[in-house]
């Protein structure tokens, strides 16, 4: 018998874990806002006992996200940071982690100011060069943690090359895939052991719910993280699970539009006389453009650009009208932010300078509005510089 063909991405996004409700035939997965479940008798139940442990809406979302990333299971948490923290609880005092040196600012804050107090050790390297990762691995290294592309400098790491190093060194590779989503990048297929997302971003896509997910490639990982859900309780609520299920249904079409507009805006910024530099892997001048084409099927909508000074950035950001000055990314609306005072403020001036985050950097998450309106807005805002 020939192998059964796997459904396409958009089909999986709409149908995996989202089968019609068996009791009513409802096409949309129901929200189960219950804290507990009646048991048939002592020791017998229908698989659900208490909502911190499991919930039917949550189960459906976990099935859906595992299918999209090509994992065997997924576990969702109350935020992206809660998901990253849950991964780290799988390790112990004395374990060492190699990390990218230009991660989202909340990650080193968690690592250095919380987890280091419990004896975990962290080394930060430029993971765009896989050799840096190999040199940093020690005998007690248990995890390599990377973002690709990075937030906000849009630097790429070669997932396949780093995964091969991790296999040899017996360390687990964890990839934050938030910027690309599973639609444009498949870290598991490239050798990652776990994939993490802030579901708040592109997976949800509507800026109306916090969440995080870890996609697993082994049953041991899935079981450990299910225990963390039960023991620590930083779970995703049924309503927010439903919001992500709602958002994922349109992930494919949204990412296509994000990508089309992102490419146009990046080229517009690259040609703009007020912009000093653009960080976007879809531009041929990006130093890792070839790697981007190799391990990603699109370039996405995350763009960072240099205005030249804090004064310039402030003037511009005060004038935007279509773009919204706000934290976060990945929504249908265009969001624009200032990394030095927002997402990476916790690093301090010295920490930001060491990795190349200047006071003039601006990050934009291009939404799905008419792209001409986005460019007109950026143009009029930069007229003040």
Structure description:
With 385 residues, the chain is an alpha/beta fold. It has 2 domains: 9-248, 3-Layer(aba) Sandwich (Aspartate Aminotransferase, domain 2); 251-382, Aspartate Aminotransferase, domain 1 (Alpha-Beta Complex), CATH 3.90.1150. It is 37% helix and 14% strand. The chain has 14 helices and 12 strands. The strands form 2 sheets. Strands 1-7-6-5-4-2-3 form a 7-stranded mixed beta sheet, with helices on both faces. A 5-stranded mixed beta sheet has the order 8-9-12-11-10. Strand 2, helix 4 (106-113) and strand 3 (121-125) form a beta-alpha-beta unit. The relative contact order is 0.13. The mean pLDDT is 96.
CATH superfamily of the largest domain: Type I PLP-dependent aspartate aminotransferase-like (Major domain)
Specify the biggest β-sheet: 7 strands, mixed
Q: Work out the count of structural domains.
A: 2
Strand content: 5-15%
CATH class of the largest domain: Alpha Beta
* Strand tally: 12
Q: Count of helices?
A: 14
The outline comes out as globular
- Architecture of the largest domain in CATH? 3-Layer(aba) Sandwich
| Main sheet: strand order | 1-7-6-5-4-2-3
């Amino acid at each position: 018998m020939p192998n059964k063909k796997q459904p396409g991405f958009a089909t999986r996004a709409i149908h995996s874990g989202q089968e019609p409700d068996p009791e009513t035939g409802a096409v949309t997965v129901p929200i189960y806002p219950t804290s507990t479940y009646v048991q048939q008798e002592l020791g017998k139940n229908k698989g659900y006992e208490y909502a911190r442990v499991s919930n039917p809406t949550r189960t459906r979302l976990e099935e859906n996200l595992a299918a999209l990333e090509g994992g065997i299971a997924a576990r969702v948490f109350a935020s992206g940071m809660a998901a990253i923290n849950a991964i780290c609880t799988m390790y112990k005092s004395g374990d060492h982690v190699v990390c990218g040196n230009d991660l989202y600012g909340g990650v080193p804050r968690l690592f250095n100011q919380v987890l280091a107090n419990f004896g975990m050790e962290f080394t930060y390297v430029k993971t765009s060069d896989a050799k840096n990762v190999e040199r940093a691995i020690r005998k007690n290294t248990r995890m390599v943690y990377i973002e690709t592309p990075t937030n906000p400098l849009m630097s790429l790491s070669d997932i396949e090359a780093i995964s091969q190093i991790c296999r040899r060194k017996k360390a687990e590779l964890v990839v934050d895939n938030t910027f690309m989503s599973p639609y444009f990048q498949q870290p598991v297929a490239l050798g990652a052991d776990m994939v993490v997302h802030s579901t708040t971003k592109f997976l949800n896509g509507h800026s109306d719910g916090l969440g995080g997910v870890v996609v697993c490639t082994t049953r041991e990982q899935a079981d450990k993280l299910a225990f963390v859900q039960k023991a620590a309780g930083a779970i995703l609520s049924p309503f927010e699970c439903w919001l992500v299920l709602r958002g994922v249904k349109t992930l494919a079409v949204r990412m296509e539009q994000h990508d089309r507009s992102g490419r146009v805006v990046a080229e517009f910024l690259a040609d703009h006389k007020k912009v000093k530099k653009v960080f976007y892997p879809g531009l041929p001048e990006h130093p890792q453009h070839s790697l981007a084409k190799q391990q990603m099927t699109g370039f996405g909508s995350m763009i960072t650009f240099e205005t030249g000074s804090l004064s310039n950035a402030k003037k511009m950001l005060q004038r935007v009208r279509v773009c919204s000055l706000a934290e976060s990314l990945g929504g249908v609306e265009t969001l624009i932010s200032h990394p030095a005072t927002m997402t990476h403020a916790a690093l301090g001036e010295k920490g930001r300078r060491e990795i190349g985050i200047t006071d003039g950097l601006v990050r934009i998450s291009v939404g799905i509005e008419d792209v001409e309106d986005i460019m007109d807005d950026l143009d009029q805002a930069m007229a003040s510089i």
